[in-house]
Amino acid sequence: MLPWRPRSSLADRFAVGRVFLVGDAAHTVSPLGAFGLNTGVADAHNLAWKLAAVHHGEAGAGLLDTYAQEREPVAAATLDQAMRRLADPQLHWGRGPEADAARAAAGVWAAPVVHLGRRYDSAAVVDPRPELPSTVDLAVALGGSPGSRVPHAWVDGISTLDLVASRWTLLVGAAGDRWLAAAAEVGLPAHRVGAPWLPDDGAVLVRPDAIVAMRVTTPVPDPARFLADVLDQVPARPVAVPST
């Protein structure tokens, strides 16, 4: 039996033409922190809806370019966090103020932030905010910003994470009547949400993978036109060519 040796690796590219790498084919991660499987699942979650959209003619092939744009930086950061923990396992397992201070000094993020606090920066996000406002508090790291996972909030006993249900969904604030009407006009599922991360007259557009594609915090003159433009821009929808 050969001795186990820790290693991590990252593919030079996650996508070339029609070939996409996910999971261990794209990256190998030290087991400390249990980041490897979750990172691989997140790869597949990111890619699957994009492949489906292009296959069904709902998006242009350019949407597939955003897979590598979004997942490569996240995988690189995850590998870095895993190796920092491997160098000193107490940075992962330690609890209490002293352990928190040691993690901060070593640049080690809280495990939930590594797993779920990712921020995507690509053409599939409007006005992305890739910087993390917190590497300690997941609730702060999310916050409804473009490029981040939509935060949880209860809506009539259902989590916002279940409301999006693998489809484009608009979440609007308490005073979002104009947004609800606009969503109905463009054929978009919409729900009113009372949450501190969503202003009363604001709205967030959530992708099928539960990532916030757009966030609006101030009124716009024509919400329906605004939504239609974003839905054309973000999925890189193909332009119809008139028949001859």
From TrEMBL:
The protein's required cofactors: FAD
Span of domain FAD-binding: 3-82
Entries under InterPro entries matching the protein: FAD-bd (IPR002938), FAD/NAD-bd_sf (IPR036188), RIFMO-like (IPR050641)
Matching Pfam families: FAD_binding_3 (PF01494), Rng_hyd_C (PF21274)
Taxonomic superkingdom: Bacteria
Keywords: FAD, Flavoprotein
UniProt GO MF annotations: FAD binding; oxidoreductase activity, acting on paired donors, with incorporation or reduction of molecular oxygen, NAD(P)H as one donor, and incorporation of one atom of oxygen
Gene3D superfamilies: 3.40.30.120, D-Amino Acid Oxidase, subunit A, domain 2 (3.30.9.10), FAD/NAD(P)-binding domain (3.50.50.60)
Protein name listed in UniProt: FAD-binding domain-containing protein
Source organism of the structure: Saccharothrix tamanrassetensis
